[in-house]
Design a protein that fits this description.
Elements: H1 18-32, H2 41-55, H3 60-69, H4 73-82, H5 93-110, E1 115-121, H6 127-139, E2 145-152, H7 155-163, E3 165-167, H8 176-182, E4 183-185, E5 193-196, H9 198-202, E6 204-208, E7 221-226, H10 235-247, E8 249-257, E9 270-274, E10 277-280
Parallel strand pairs: 1-2, 1-7, 2-6, 7-8
Antiparallel strand pairs: 3-5, 4-5, 8-10, 9-10
Helix pairs in contact: 1-3, 2-4, 5-6
The structure holds S-adenosylmethionine (SAM).
Length: 283
């Protein structure tokens, strides 16, 4: 769990100077695109204090030395600690309704090839791609070749997502019929846990991917979900990213973004259909 409230700076176990915070936020921005505002000091302290304890370091100055030089394991732990991974099954439910009622019927009617390619970019612990997989499998005939690519920067999240195992409380809001079809309940030692069915897991490929780096695939995708990810980036990074997404989508393909995100004055290659759903414009 990533800690919420931190003790006042004067009562803290470690000293984090202004310089330490500057170094940390520069590395985060260079490596991930995530912008840490001044208001994020307490959050950064809370998330990284644990790393200092694990490494037995006396202060943030020494930790900054490690992450400034390190290109290996600690850098990955550092990035994992900084990312915010909040997610849920069927989060922003209107996107899944649109998918079921509008987009999938449109794709099935118009595609020449019986093939659908989907990307969940910034998938966190996997609830988003599994929700997409359920809707797709319920609505697209079995003889369609459907594949979902699900990627995230945070290696812990990608590992958790590919296991597809969750506390059953996480699925309590899902319709019973849907649960019965797609979810296996744990027994004995695993009681209280659920696992996504093999059929769902079989159509999703989970990979670690930093959206700031090159993308080792070609697309084109029929639709991309990149929700509640760009909110952590500045406008220039968002502009570059939305343009890259546009390059990986067919004309007329769709892009779903988070409820507090917008392409307004950022990227004009998409047309807003409503409620953070966009359609790529043809040339
Ligand atoms: C708040 S979660 C959103 C999860 C899901 N898309 C949703 O809306 O429920 C944001 C995710 O973006 C990922 N992320 C942040 N920066 C990233 C980057 N540069 N490349 C890839 N993923 C990134 C984080 O690791 C985190 O899991």
């Amino acid at each position: 769990m990533k800690a919420l409230k931190q003790p006042a700076a004067s009562n803290r176990e470690f000293v984090m100077t202004e310089r330490d915070f500057e170094i940390i936020r520069n590395i985060v921005s260079e490596r991930t695109g995530i912008v840490l505002s001044d208001g994020k000091r307490d959050m950064v302290y809370g998330r990284l204090a644990r790393r200092l304890r694990v490494l037995g370091l006396p202060g943030f100055g020494q930790y900054c030395d490690v992450i400034s030089q390190d290109d290996g394991e600690e850098l990955s732990e550092f990035i994992n600690a900084i990312t915010t991974n909040l997610t849920a099954f069927f989060r922003e439910a209107h996107h899944f309704e649109y998918l079921e009622k509008e987009l999938l019927p449109f794709i099935m009617e118009n595609k020449k090839e019986r093939k659908i390619r989907i990307w969940s970019a910034g998938c966190s612990s996997g609830e988003e791609p599994y929700s997409i997989a359920m809707v797709v499998r319920e609505n697209v005939p079995k003889d369609w070749d459907v594949k979902i690519l699900a990627t995230d920067l945070d290696t812990n999240m990608v590992n958790k997502a590919s296991l597809g195992i969750y506390d059953e409380k996480r699925v309590s809001g899902i319709d019973k019929k849907r649960l019965k079809r797609w979810i296996r309940r744990g027994r004995g030692n695993n009681s209280g846990m659920i696992r996504m069915s093999d059929e769902l897991r079989g159509i999703i490929t989970f990979n670690q991917l930093n959206l700031m780096h090159s993308w080792p695939f070609r697309g084109p995708f029929d639709f991309i979900f990149c929700r509640n990810v760009v909110i952590y980036f500045n406008k220039d990074t968002q502009r570059i990213l939305f343009n890259r997404f546009a390059d990986f989508l067919q004309d007329g393909a769709h892009m779903f973004i988070g409820h507090s995100e917008s392409m307004f004055n950022v990227c004009d290659r998409f047309r807003l259909l409503g409620k953070t759903i966009y359609r790529k414009q043809g040339i």
